[in-house]
Amino acid sequence: MPKASNLLLYLYLIMCACMLLFDLFSVLRRRFSLRAGEARQEQWKRYFNEICARGGNRPDEEEACRYALLRLVPWFLRPAMKGRGDDEVLYFLLRRLNALLEFQGAISWCLDQPSNRYPLIPWVQGKKAVFIRLGERYLNQDSAVRAFYAYLCRRCLLGGPEPEDPITQNMLYLVTDSSLYCRENSLSALYAFGGTEAVAQALVRLSRAGVLHSAKLITDGLLSFHGDRRQLSDVLWEHWEEFLPYYQTAIVNYLRMSDSRFCDRLLLLLKEEEEDRELRLAIVRYYRKNRYEPARETLQKLVRSSPTEGWEFAALAALSLESYPGDDTEKVLKQALSHRNWYVRSNAAEALLNLLARPVSELAPDLLPEVSGTARELGDALRERGWYVSLGRPRRAVAPDAPALKDVLEGEDRFARDILRYRLEAFQRE
Fold this sequence. Notes:
Blueprint (H helix, E strand, L loop, with lengths): L1 H53 L4 H12 L7 H4 L4 H9 L2 H15 L2 H13 L1 H11 L4 H13 L10 H9 L5 H14 L2 H14 L5 H9 L5 H10 L6 H14 L4 H9 L5 H13 L6 H8 L7 H10 L6 H10 L5 H15 L1 E2 H8 L7 H10 L3 E2 L6 E3 L4 H7 L4 H16 L1
Antiparallel strand pairs: 1-3, 2-3
Helix pairs in contact: 1-2, 1-5, 1-6, 4-7, 8-9, 8-10, 9-10, 10-12, 11-13, 12-14, 14-16, 15-16, 16-18, 17-18, 18-20, 19-20, 20-24, 21-22
């Protein structure tokens, strides 16, 4: 019995020793791999610096660049690589994922140097055939590898604006991938390539596949588009019926920030009550940024809408009306101060104050001809006279005897008085 227990103890100690040796070997291997990767990345940097410094235009410069490229090949394979072209050598080097990661780290570092960007981008674009071949290899791997390939294509601007471009075709293939990162990286690449039709086709493919990519990312991506934005807006509108309402909403949010030419077309959609709810709300926001007089009446109707329409329409329309000054707008906003929904009352009060507020610099010449100084000093002088003055820039002020203000503050509706006083206090802290 003691011998059996000793044997088990010895086996346990041997297993512990093996595990310790395995862990030690893994740590050393990982450390060696990291150092080797850093060394290879430095070799890539030297190669890119050689390209940027020499340009590779003369025979001696081409030879120097080729020598720097061959130094990246393991020493025992260099004799076999000497007779091959640069594209073959580059493909041989980048066919391993670790090598592609090292390449990306080095070229990203070099592209961040302003002096290197001009000579390096044309060089890497000249190696486009290599990356097309690499795409055939890496697009069949897992989603993380596909996402990394799309990122590298965007970083090096490898694709063209035409949808028929092979790299662009690869990105269009990836936009319906199940991975969010893969979709976003491929879309970012298409935005960087500057092709309007390619971007529209990407959104059409997402719509047809029923893939709901983040609407916020879509809007931000369209705003980062590197080509002609007006042309992009026109192409997106040409494909309007092919998009899901989800993507139409993201496009309207993009148009709100970039293009005011669609006011008449979007107004027709806003008036159609059977249209998607989120799309119509996005259009209401559009008219806050882009004033369009024919939309005034529709926005006022939405503020007065029945509860079945939804308080969101009334709340957003109230904010949008701050871009449509006039007695009729003030009347609608004063009525909205009595709305049963707090958000509608709050937005109506904010819009009403924005309509009544004027920059201090415009008021000073008439009201304070004897006062000269900074906007802060002029604002303090107006505040001493009872005006409501904001603290932000530019400083704005609201007259205490403004008729619309007095009607509410001296009125009988307690809800209207309270929300307006609350907004006045917030206005003075802005």
